[in-house]
Write a structure and sequence with these properties.
With 470 residues, the protein is mainly alpha-helical. It has 24 helices and six strands. β2 and β3 form a beta hairpin. It is elongated and about 75 Å long.
Length: 470
């Protein structure tokens, strides 16, 4: 069998395995349902006006919008899985069939935690980053490439995530570094596409108030701790994932900083033979660190884009085992840590439901008549239940139906009197209340616990259903 046919066969095997795990074992989380409802329940114009609250560019929502057109002939779960799986198939096709990497390295990369589980199984827009980054890498691996096509890819890359913008800018820095006449090079079609992509990203997404930035930063920490946390997250938690506990949950440690320094030394060694590639590498790393320190600390999901960028640069560099033995070993070590962590994540996803939203949603779908309103105490946590229930819930004090939430909104806790007035307004004998935590019996004495969904789950998200007479 030729190398080309073997690569196609391995690619087909991988995308079939991922499709199986997505459909057979993975339960959709609130982040996955949120994007679907925004795409489904908003017009294109409304989506763009809503990006301010999401903090993500429009490409994933616009892409999902196409699949919402088929809502009448298939379940939303299947449509979300299918839409995301297509991006996975595209990204892995570039990895296996277009990048100048040994097949065994592609296999280990695809089996890593980020490519297989975090971005491959979980249905979010991050695999668009993978797809477009690897597409750009395949173009840049050739001395002569289509600048119009690359400009288009870089523009779209800027519409995936802020981390996609970092990748695009870093690749642009590499392009500019290869020419003495920077002004002339800046007017080429690929750089123009990059510039337009960054501009469109800023106009559509960039927070417009300091308050929004503050709300998305999370818990504040001393500046030195912030720096060390960012270093550990973007290095050891990315390239040696599992070597130390999750930085997001447990903070930085001396061992984590040591592993981060070792990871950084290994990365520098990989690209030291082609020093110009150190320009995009350090450009990307510095932007990631600055963003983590000053804007949003992030977590494994965000930091893992660095692993994607590593393979993007490797595709440009090219790896030949006979000539790059030490570099190959370092990359293999990175992939080994990712592979072990991936096995753990997949086993947990098989053993446990991702959350209890599926069981809660299906219970509501079967047991709660459509005419009985379901009021959510915390709409942020209720969104995935809405997806599985196949109906919208109500929020107070507005008393309107909802499917998605706004990340910066505060949680409103209604009084029992407000809930009863709402039931009277709806003309029903009672309502159902869903809460992510048990309700305070002193605050809601008339609420009767009907069903609780608190079995062990991956994200530790539980739900409690109460009934309340009018």
């Amino acid at each position: 069998m030729s190398d080309k046919k073997l690569r196609l066969l391995v690619w087909l095997i991988f995308i079939m395995i991922i499709a199986y795990f997505k459909v057979a074992h993975h339960e959709l989380w609130k982040d996955e349902w949120q994007a679907w409802f925004v795409a489904k329940d908003k017009s294109v114009a409304e989506i763009f006006s809503f990006l301010y609250y999401e903090g993500h560019p429009a490409l994933w929502y616009l892409y999902l919008k196409i699949f919402t057109l088929f809502s009448g002939i298939s379940s939303p779960e299947m449509l979300i899985n299918t839409a995301h799986w297509i991006t996975v198939a595209g990204g892995l096709y570039f990895l296996f069939c277009k990048l100048r990497l040994p097949l065994i390295l592609c296999v280990f990369g695809a089996l890593s935690y980020f490519l297989f589980f975090e971005y491959g199984i979980v249905n979010r827009g991050y695999f668009l980053v993978v797809l477009l980054s690897f597409w750009a890498s395949s173009l840049l691996s050739h001395a002569e490439f289509n600048k119009t096509q690359l400009g288009f890819v870089l523009f779209l890359l800027c519409q995936t995530e802020v981390y996609g913008v970092f990748i695009a800018i870093s690749l642009g820095a590499w392009l500019l570094s290869q020419h003495k006449d920077l002004i002339k090079r800046a007017y080429s079609r690929d750089i123009i596409g990059l510039g337009l992509g960054v501009l469109f990203f800023i106009i559509s997404v960039f927070p417009r108030t300091a308050g929004h930035v503050a709300k998305t930063r999370g818990n504040e920490m001393p500046f030195v701790d912030n720096i060390l946390t960012s270093l550990q997250g973007n290095l050891s938690n990315t390239y040696l994932i599992g070597s130390t506990p999750d930085t997001f949950a447990y903070g930085w440690s001396v061992a984590g900083i040591v592993f981060s320094i070792l990871a950084l030394a290994g990365l520098i060694f990989i690209f030291y033979g082609q020093k110009r590639l150190l320009i995009p590498f350090f450009t990307f790393l510095l932007m990631m660190l600055a963003f983590s320190i000053f804007f949003f600390t992030g977590g494994v999901r965000q930091w893992g884009v660095g692993f994607i960028f590593l393979f993007t640069l490797l595709g440009i560099r090219g790896i030949v085992w006979n000539k790059d033995k030490v570099a190959g070993i370092i990359i293999g070590v990175f992939c080994l840590f990712g592979f072990i962590h991936n096995i753990k994540a997949v086993k947990e996803d098989i053993r446990l439901p991702f959350t209890n939203s599926q069981s809660a949603g299906r219970f509501i779908k079967e047991k709660v008549p459509r005419k009985v309103p379901v009021v959510a105490i915390n709409k942020f946590e209720a969104t995935p239940v809405i997806g599985y229930a196949g109906r919208k819930f109500y929020e107070l004090p507005d008393g309107v139906e909802f499917s998605y939430f706004r990340w910066v909104d505060k949680i409103y806790l209604p009084t029992e009197r407000e809930l009863k007035i709402f039931a009277q307004y709806k003309g029903v004998g009672g309502i159902v209340i869903i809460s992510p935590k048990p309700l305070d019996a002193n605050r809601f004495p008339s609420a009767t616990l009907w069903q609780k969904f608190d079995q062990e789950n991956y994200k530790k998200e539980n739900y409690y259903l109460y009934s309340m007479a009018r």
